[in-house]
Amino acid sequence: QLQFVESGGGLVQPGGSLRLSCAASGFRLDYYTTGWFRQAPGREREGVSCISSSDGITYYADSVKGRFTISSDSAKNTVYLQMNSLKPEDTAVYYCAAPCSPVGSSWSFGSWGQGTQVTVSS
When comparing pLDDT for 49 and 106, which is higher? Predict the structure, then answer.
């Protein structure tokens, strides 16, 4: 059973940074492309970023390219999302999930955790 524990969310001012962590269990990161999606009230779920830990290939939504960086630590079986230059429109609950299929404009995800709230506001 794939399980995820997300952490690192919080309240930050516009232009600030946060680092999200996702401790995965029930599988090795090398087995599945793993990543993040977000959901804001009244908005559709949006794929944010995914990483294939076996070969290091990363995927980003256009809305976060150049601002967010995904990485993984196979020894800790943990995925990270470094978020810089945060904007109010980044406000959402961020979920760690796998497997991630970043195809086209509608990414799909298999299983996910409880999520962590990110609020960008002055």
Answer: 49
